[in-house]
Amino acid sequence: MAGVKPDGAVPPLRTAEVIAVGSELLGTSRLDTNSLFIAQKLGELGIELRAKAVVGDERRRLHEIFVHALGRADLVLLTGGLGPTDDDLTREVVAAALSLELIEDETITARIRARFERRGMRMPDLNRRQAMVPRGAVALPNANGTAPGLLILAGDRVVVLLPGPPRELQPILSALCEETGALGRRAGRERIHTVSLFTTGRSESHVEEATQPLYSQWREASPPIETTILATPGQVEIHLSLRSDDGPSARRILEDARAQLADALGDSVFTTSGRTLPQVVGERLLERKLTLAAAESCTGGLLLQRLTDVAGSSAYVRGGIVAYDNRVKETLLDVPPDLIARHGAVSEPVAAAMVEGLRARTGADVCVAITGIAGPGGGTEAKPVGTVVIAVEVPGRALEVRTHLFPGGREMVRLQATQSALDRVRRLLD
Ligand code: ATP
Known about the structure:
By secondary structure, the chain is of the alpha/beta class.
C-alpha cells in the first residue's frame, strides 16, 4: 500500500468506494440508501464515487470486498455493522485487514456509559465492543447513537467507518465533509458544480432531439460539461455538471449552458430552480390572486394531494370533489345522466360538464376536471387503458378539453394525468 510521500505532501482524495454492511440489506425489506447520501456529499467535494457494494454480515466476504476496494480507491467508506453484537463485524474486519490491533478507547466507553446513565440505565458489558478501535483511528462523535464513526489513515488512503442508521451517519459525514472537516481538507481544490432544469409535456426522446447538438458541443469543451437526463412520468430533468477549481467561472459557464438549453426547450421548461410543478403552479395562482378547484375521477384526489403537499397552498386551493362513481358525477357535479349515457364517463363532454358543475359548486377561478381509465381493467378498443380526458378553465380563456393516451400501468397513468393537468394550468396562466 502506498505510504505518505517523503515530503509529507498527501495527494488529494479523488476516488471513493462505499461498502454497505448488513445482511438485512441483501433481503427484500431494507434498501441501502446511505450510499445515496454519501454519493451526494462526496460529489460536492469533487470526490468521484466509483463503486458501491452491499455485503452481509460475513467476515470473509467483507474482508475480500474491503481489500479490493482499498486497492482501487483513495477513500473507502463502510456503513453499518458497528453495533455491540457478535454479527457487527466491520471494525474487526477492517482492523485485521490493515493489521491494526483493536484497543479499548476509554473515552468512548465513558461516553457510552454516560449515554446509558442519562436514561437511568446501566451500560451492558456488550457495549464495550463499540469502544474498541483500531490503533491510531480517530473517533468521530455520534450525537444520535452509541457507536462513534471511525477514521483511519492507511498510507495515502483513508478509511471511514460509519454507523448504519441514517440519522446517525448523516451528521457525522456532513461534519467530515465541511471545508475544515477531515475529508473536506483532503479533497482537491476541484469541486463538482451542478445546475438543473426540469421540463414537462415533452417525451425524453423529444427533449434529447432538441438538445443533442448542445451536448456534443459541451462534451468537447474544456472543461467538459457533463449532462444527465432523468425521465420520470410526465417529467424530464436535465442536470449539467462541471468539474472545476474556479467556482465563479464554473457557475457562469453552467448558467450560460442552462440558458441555451432553456432556449432550445422553450415553454416546456417549468423550472430552473428545482421547484416542483405543483409549487410552480401555486406561485402562478398566488401572483394572479386566483383560486383553484379540481374534480377528479381516475386520479382519486392525487391532483389535490400534490397541490396541497405544498406549504401555504390554502391561499389558492379551494378544494374539490373526488367523483369516482358516475352517481357522484351526477349528484355532486350536476353532470346530466344522459350525457354519461351517450358519451361515456370518459369523454370530452363529460369532462366539460364536470368543470361546469365544479365552478357552480365551489366558485373557484380555475377549475380542473380529470376523467380517465387508469387500468388495468376497464379499457375498450375505442378507449384503451391510459385514455384520460382533462378539462381546464381559467379566467379570460376558453374552456380547454384534451384527450390523452398515457403509457404505463395504473400508477404511471394517474401520475401523468395529474402532471398534464398541472402543466395545462401553468401554460394557460402564462
Ligand atoms: P447500531 O449501533 O445502531 O446497531 P450499526 O452501525 O451496527 O448501528 P446496523 O446494525 O448495521 O448499524 O444497522 C442499523 C440500522 O440502520 C438498520 O436496521 C437499518 O435500518 C439502517 N441501515 C443500515 N445500513 C443502512 C444503509 N446502507 N442504508 C440505509 N439504512 C441502513
